[in-house]
Amino acid sequence: MNKVLVLGAGLVAHPTVQYLLEHGFYVTVVSIEAAMAEALVKNHPYGHAVVMDVSDRTALGRLVAEHDLTVSLLPAVMHVMVAEICLANKKHMVTASYVKPEMRALSEAAEKAGVLLLNEIGLDPGIDHMSAMEVIHRAAKEGGRVVEFSSSCGGLPAPEANDNPLGYKFSWSPRGVLLAAKNSARFLKDGKIVEIPGEELFDHYQTVKIGDLGDFEVYPNRNSLDYIDIYGLHEARSVFRGTIRNVGHCDSWRRMVDFGLFDDKAQNAAGLTYRQFMARLICGDSAADPKQALAARYGVPESAALAAKLEWLGMFADEIVQETHISPMDLLLSRMLKTMMFKPGERDMVILQDVFTIEYPDRTERVTCDLIDFGIPNGDSSMSRTVGLPVAIAVRYILEGRISLTGVQVPVKPEVYEPVMQELGRLGIKFEERIEVL
Fold it and tell me: Which CATH superfamily does the domain covering 127-248+343-382+430-437 fall into?
């Protein structure tokens, strides 16, 4: 029986662990929290929970050596350390996180050792890679070339759970969501590179229709130019990756970024109420009315929707801020964690849309591929399934010998994406494809 070591017991771990147990693998789950690890294995005869600080490289090395493959669901900063330990023990590793330069540097050594370090096998990155490469490779076989490509993804509340003024609930790291709002972006548009500073990110959104769900906003996501090489899109005029949010999101978040609510540097908050803290942040005067300060800064009609959202969050409350020093971002996060989490029984929703313009010798086609997936009420969220299941499926196929690559890899090769996407489809995670002749 193959033995799999899973490091981390967070939001996406349950689908990973359950899939592997159901397919006959022995699974050891490591967490600093005993209850979290034990909840994942639930006394399964093939499951084992271990409480350990994974920063102890010696202890971790012993565990890695005892297993055939290690899954790292730890914070991204720890993946390279885990990969180094796996490499030293000639064991494979799988993670859903982006490949960093330090990870890429291990590729040659991994190839020589016959070890696969498979990264970016979650949702975004992950399913986005695999869905894109299916179409890109198919087009190439049929004599076509992709001249325009966009891929956008978002995790949102399902329509019936979309019941707050901000149109958003957290299905992954809340702090990560806020930090991502400060990222700069680069993409290719009509042959020209477009660069967007982080503070202007939400000025550059477009409205798109997705399936039968209606309109959404899409804003740029990080550096799309990297995907020209990753996907072999050297003939493309436009390459864009975006983040999907509900309508109204970008305008509100743009203004919050503008007046400093996403600043992560601690400020003196001693004795201040939320209302006073916000007034000082917006106009420099803690005695001012924050709603009037917003109106003076942005205009009365323009600021009304944002003021209503911030008031709903409790950011204008006459409640004393408990911390004496806190950043505006952490103050915002403290209120969001109270008001914008999923309630029991509510469903989340994942949307991933790829759009290709493909030129063939005799025609031009626009291919639109939509993935719309919903969480299971009182069960796994869609976000956890779409991240955790690709990880688990890849682990299964590596250990069964269906994936035999070595080195540092991402899932852009048919050997990986064909069987993984087929299995995801069997599990109900699949795309709807539309083709228009232009």
Answer: Dihydrodipicolinate Reductase; domain 2 (3.30.360.10)
Q: What is the pLDDT of residues 79-112, one digit of tens each?
A: 999 999 999 999 999 999 999 999 999 999 999 9
pLDDT 10s digits, 341-362: 999 999 999 999 999 999 999 9
Give me the catalytic one of 56, 124, 163, 318: 124
**Residue 40's closest CA among 64, 67, 22, 63?**
22
Q: Who's near 152: CB < 8 A, 6+ residues apart?
A: 208, 218, 221, 241, 242, 243, 244, 351, 352, 353
Q: Please compute, for residue 170, the number of CA atoms within 13 A of its CA located in the half-sphere on the CB side.
A: 17
pTM for this prediction: 0.92
362-394 confidence digits (pLDDT tens):
999 999 999 999 999 999 999 999 999 999 999
Choose among 51, 10, 47: nearest CA to 33.
51
Domain ranges of the chain: 3-118, 127-248+343-382+430-437, 266-326
Asked if the domains 3-118 and 127-248+343-382+430-437 are classified in one and the same CATH topology, the answer is no
Q: Decide if 124 is catalytic.
A: yes
Contact call for residues 186 and 225 (beta carbons, < 8 A): yes
**3-118, what's its fold?**
Rossmann fold (3.40.50)
